Amino acid sequence: METTDKDYIDAKLQAVIERLNGDARAHQLATDARFVQLNQTLEAGLKSTQKENELQRAQTEAYLQKVVSEVTRSQSEITKSQGELIKWVAGISIASAAITISATTLLVTQSTPKGPAPIVIYAQPSPPAAAPEIDKPDGARK
Question: Nearest Cα to 23, choosing from 31, 35, 12, 11?
Answer without folding.
Answer: 31
